[in-house]
Amino acid sequence: MILIKLFVLGAIGYLLSGLYDIAVLYRKTMVKWIFYPGFFITAIPYLWLFLEFRSPLPIWVGIPLLIVMSVCMILLIYSVLIEIQIHPVQPKKVYDRGTYRISRHPGFLWYTLINVLIALYFWDMSIALVCLAFIGCNLLLIIVEDFIIFPKMFSDYGEYKQQTPFLFSLRHLFHRRDRK
């Protein structure tokens, strides 16, 4: 029952995150701050998992999983919260450098890896299903962003979509793209 409650809490976080994107799109400054906590609400179920459950894995397996999970968490935070902020772009233009060169949604890549690692760490089918459901919620959010919100938000998003894969491409990691 606790896992269902954690999923509902996380799903509410994703709904609020999507509403935040819509508020940003329509320049509803006050409203966007009401929905902004949704991004952090999505993290609460993970904290709860680590407080409520223990890994059955031996320490020599669990510790490396936690280390890789931490690296993915740092990459997620960097891609989603830091990278775009420290590399200014023109208003209404999409940021297409760094991790956003290999994927239009690099945060989804790190987030998916984190969820897979959490499922492995706890080695529990119910937790794995909740992690899979969270990946589904995140995927739904980025599909809405990619097809509806971002094309309206960024004037060059169509060109960016043609040059950058939805999820991942090694080719984009090694080839420099020149901007006009």
Can you describe what's shown?
This protein has a single domain (2-174), classed as Up-down Bundle (Four Helix Bundle (Hemerythrin (Met), subunit A)), CATH 1.20.120. The longest helix has 29 residues, at 125-153. It has 10 helices and no strands. The chain starts with a helix and ends in a 6-residue tail after the last helix. The protein is mainly alpha-helical and 180 residues long. It is globular.
Terminal CA distance reads: 54 Å
Helix content: over 70%
What are the low-pLDDT stretches, counting only 5+ consecutive residues below 50? none
Helix-strand topology string:
HHHHHHHHHH
How is the topology of this model organized?
Elements: H1 2-25, H2 29-35, H3 38-41, H4 44-52, H5 59-86, H6 99-102, H7 106-122, H8 125-153, H9 157-163, H10 170-174
Helix pairs in contact: 1-2, 1-4, 1-8, 5-7, 7-8
List the main descriptive attributes of the protein structure presented here:
180 residues; mainly alpha; Four Helix Bundle (Hemerythrin (Met), subunit A)
